[in-house]
Amino acid sequence: MITEDVGTFSDTVEEAASVEACTKCTACNTVCPVARSTEIFRGPKFLGPESERYRSQPEATVTAGLDLCSGCKLCEVTCPSQVTIQEYIRRAQNKGAEEKGRTLRDWVLGHTRVLSQFGSMTAPLANIGNRNPVVRWVMERVLGIHHKRPLPAYQWMTFERWFKRHRAQAPTPTVSNASMALKRRSRGPTGPPREPGREKRTVAYFSACWVNFNERRLGEMVVHVLERNGIAVTVPKQQCCGIPAVVNSNMDLARKYGKENLRSLSALPPDVDIVASSTSCGLMLKHDYDHLLDIPGAAAIGARVYDICEYLWMLHEAGELKQDFEPVQTRVLYHAPCHLKSHGIGYPAMRLLRLIPGVVVEEVDEGCCGISGTYGVKVEKYDLSMKIGSRLFEAVKAAGSDSVLADCETCRMQVEHGSGARSAHPLEILARAYGYR
Amino acid sequence: MKADIAVVGSGLAALVATRTLQQAGRNAVLIWPGLSSLYFTYATVDVLGYADDTTVQPVEQPEAGVAQLIADHPEHPYAIAGLDALRGGTALLTEWLGEAGFKWQGSLARNLLLPTAIGTPKPCCLVPDSMAAGDLRRDEPIVFCGFSGYEDFVPELAASNLARAWGRGDQTVRALRLALPGFEPGRLFTSIDLARSFENEAFRRDVATGLRAVLDDGTVRIGMPAVLGLTHDSDVHAQFENEIGHPVFEIPTLPPSVLGLRLFDRLRKHIQESGVEIIWAAPAHAAEVSDGRCRRIHLKSAGRELPIDARAYVLALEDTVDGAMRAGVHDVIDPFFHQTLAHHAVPTERTNESLFKPQPFASIGYPVTDRLQPGGEDGRPLAENVFVAGGAIAGYDPVGTKSRGGLAVATGYRAAKEAMAA
User: CB B279 to CB A344 under 8 A?
Assistant: First the structure.
């Protein structure tokens, strides 16, 4: 039983400190992907609520083992008493780093946006460097980034620049060959062209660093799908969401980023919905700015943030999603990212894809992929991260599928690296059904 | 989000209800506040172990026992759900276990009598194959095998307790302890760690060799804590038995229960892979009712509320562990309609000081109508299209009568049937 505020002082104790709601049931330890894969990790129960009872602000934090937590949040998803296990671990980790000082790698991995900006500016060169064994050897020695971990390729043309050009283009819709073909087969119209100023809804797209510097194509697809449904898209000024800083023990930096984003998003008209295509960045905006980072005003913005598939499904239920899909004959696997489970919205991507004729989508339910953002990049965690994901890789190989869908970009990197299959965002299939090529 | 029928809960009642809906071709969505009560409370599915919580003589025929209970207590949740629901639900569950890859045995006709971790005989109805060799109606001598450093199962305690209740003729009991490779003194571990290790063939062979060395050649069966594999239980158990050369039976231990985890994980995976969507990590906290029908329930998802609009709802929460109720100092309140389910001048009224006496809090729950709808003070349904299943139903204590599983199955099945008709 969980105490809720029913009016007396003692009833609010557990809500104020959810550590008191922990019943020591150990469910979190049983689902923890790290504890499953290494016996040196004590598990979320011990490092979260149990250790929390012994932590106090003036005392030095005992950080042994805290850095092994990958931040997947499955412990919180699992907890029957809604204890914020992961937040206790993160705060303690951060305090430990403040006391002991941060490493160079903490700084570098916490500033992925700065790295990406640099990588994008020097794009072809940076990508060659990232694949060069000598450079990788140096990176491993100096930064502690494992030489086997493929690093994402940067693109010179950022999404934001593409979007500016896209906006500047004449508002005439681009009718692709595929939809022309569709018309010839007289399957009905492919939907109205883009009519600026006449859209019923406006969406602010939080494209995040990944789409901006590494996978512009995904951003183009998001814009295509939204505009195809008569929605006006804007791309507000944005900063890194802050999650790389959170998981690399720099919550002050994450808070600074969060405040910048909130300043920009607060300037949007109140009827503009905010949409994100990165699972973890969306979760930061929705939940962690308010709960973990305690940024004032975050709750009001968080309530306006949607995952892209969640948003599209909402349109579908409101009867606003165009159903003139071109059939896509494909059989794909779907991997649900851990952070998607934390959203508490189910699996809207699977629901959406099942609307499209020809698509057969099956869930591969083997838990965490193991990469957890920058976790699996680190030299001492690479092997562990591959071990965590091994069940998923085996299942993908056993299913004989060469295509795995996942909403989260680092899950996609890990699935490709571990299983050899190609991995894409679920939107890719939807965009294809809407004639995007 | 729209749904045909929404099932809230993650225990056995919720899973049986969802499976019933799925088999009828209905589109169910399963909503979880957190992990399942299966983790904590289930190893076997017990239909009726004792006629009431004061009797000492176990029930031999659970179906006949439930029929008698229904005749004696027309207000009991078994009576409301009906004997047909128990039969139908049990048949559905048994078939499902087979499809999901489990090897289980037992029937409503007869209970097995299995030793617990403290050596007391416990009547059980449906049990995993890996437990069945422990049946105390069989006469072979028992050796309880524990492990050094593992305190959730004390073989000496189990042996001395069982010897008192069971010990005629061939029925001898003894205890031994093995040291396990890799589990040196000082290492902190749980049954989950042991179960993972037993999936490793080399580890298992080492343990088997160690165990064979201390056993005589005579007929004997080995009782071990339930740690024979976390996911591949039946294989691990069969292989271990082969390596030992004696029948081996598993005994459920304290949470985290490996048996509960196996059951829950595989049923969940099976139902999810067959197309049922699960919404994780979204506790439900309010219901909107108008004109006598529930129009939507509200879930706490990240950042905002997620309303679920369904035609009907099954509230299959399993009391305390699933967050079915909110207990304050004086009142216990339900999370949907915010009704006061129980009022106490002081919280200690909810508990009995003796741990082994019936606990008043166990029978707190929703009063229900004859169709399992949650009832208001006037006895009329709070909402026509909402049905309650499992431990959240008021008026029974599943612990003392060993009936939690059967009630979850019967009420989950019946609630699903009612939801389809609503």
Answer: yes
What CATH fold (topology level) applies to the domain B2-102+263-421? FAD/NAD(P)-binding domain (3.50.50)
Could you read off the pLDDT of A214-270 as tens digits, one per residue? Answer: 999 999 999 999 999 999 999 999 999 999 999 999 999 999 999 999 999 999 999
Q: How many residues would you count in chain B?
A: 422
Is B280 at the interface with chain A, CB within 8 A?
Answer: yes
Sorted by where each starts, the structural domains of chain A and their CATH numbers stand as 9-100 (1.10.1060.10), 104-143 (no CATH), 159-317 (no CATH), 330-433 (3.40.50)
Q: For this complex, say whether ipTM is above 0.90.
A: no
Distance from CA of B32 to the nearest CA of A (A): 9
Check A1 against B306: CB less than 8 A apart: no
* B-proximal residues of A, 251-310, CB under 8 Å: 283, 285-287, 290, 299, 302-303, 305
pTM of the model: 0.90
Q: What is the CA radius of gyration of chain B?
A: 22
Query: Which B residues, 144 through 163, put their C-beta within 8 Å of a C-beta on chain A?
Result: none
What would the pLDDT profile of B316-328 be if each residue is shown by its tens digit?
A: 987 665 666 777 8
Contact B138, B148 (CB under 8 A): no
Residue A191 has pLDDT above 60, yes or no: no
> In angstroms, what CA-CA distances link B356 with A79, B46, B351, B360, B399?
27, 18, 11, 12, 10
Question: Distances in Å between the alpha carbon of A309 and those of A205, A225, A276, A324, A346?
Answer: 13, 11, 9, 17, 11
Q: Tens digit of pLDDT for each residue in A38-79?
A: 888 889 999 999 998 888 878 877 777 889 999 999 999 988
Q: Is B343 on the interface with A (CB under 8 A)?
A: no
Instruction: Judge whether B277 is closer than 8 Å to chain A, CB to CB.
Output: yes
In the prediction, which pLDDT does A195 show? 54
Domain layout of chain B by residue ranges = 2-102+263-421, 141-246
Instruction: Please answer yes or no on whether A3 and B301 come within 8 Å at the CB atom.
Output: no
Q: What percent of chain B has pLDDT over 70?
A: 97
User: B90 and B409 in contact (C-beta within 8 Å)?
Assistant: yes
